[in-house]
Write a structure and sequence with these properties.
about 190 residues; Rossmann fold; alpha/beta; single chain; seven-stranded mixed beta sheet
């Protein structure tokens, strides 16, 4: 049996626990994930988090580890995310896993009126993000933040109804921060840890 790559949870109740990475996924480096959570640290406790294109589930599970109230992890290769959740000590309250495509999940959540304080989206290379572009705003709470992750050199996507308020660069990872408030900046976003 071949060794599978893994990532670790950096902080919180599950600190140090290893998560397996699905074949073909490009996990966010520990350094980039740590930087992301440093920026958003004050927004995490009690937050409702949506992790689209979750891969290993590391971002959503890190958020719960750090005190988010709940996280919905959307990943079409859901068995890997379920395996990772099972590796973590209980309780797993507040973690929901969806095996839907991102577009179907966004439609379903929007129909149900489910809204999130933080939405993370790290789509695979070359994937169609039309659903995120047109429906990402619909699952975001007022005052919420949508973080779109891409590789260096990627142009920022336009997301209908949201304004790009900041871009951060960590090695090969770019984070684009979107808000419904065009005047917002990460240092001025409620709860931003900058």
């Amino acid at each position: 049996m071949k060794n599978r790559p893994s990532v670790r949870i950096i902080a919180g109740r599950w600190k140090g626990r290893r998560l397996v990475v699905p074949d073909g996924a490009r996990p966010t480096s520990d350094r980039a994930r740590e930087a992301l959570f440093s920026i958003l640290q004050k927004r995490i406790p009690g937050a409702k988090v949506l992790d689209l294109y979750a891969g290993s589930g590391a971002v959503g599970l890190e958020a719960v580890s750090r005190g988010a109230a709940r996280a919905t992890l959307v990943e079409k290769n859901a068995p890997v995310v379920r395996e990772n959740l099972a590796r973590l000590p209980a309780p797993h309250d507040g973690v929901e896993i969806s095996g839907e495509e991102a577009g179907s999940a966004l439609d379903s959540l929007s129909r149900k009126g489910v809204r999130f304080d933080l939405v993370f989206a790290d789509p695979p290379y070359g994937s169609e993000i039309r659903a995120l572009r047109s429906r990402g705003k619909g699952v975001l709470e007022e005052g919420g933040i949508l973080v779109f992750q891409a590789d260096r050199g990627t142009a920022s996507p336009a997301i209908e109804g949201l304004t790009l308020v900041e871009t951060r660069d960590y090695g090969r990872n770019l984070f684009f921060f979107f808000s419904k408030d065009p005047q917002a900046r990460p240092s001025k976003l409620p709860g931003a840890g900058l």
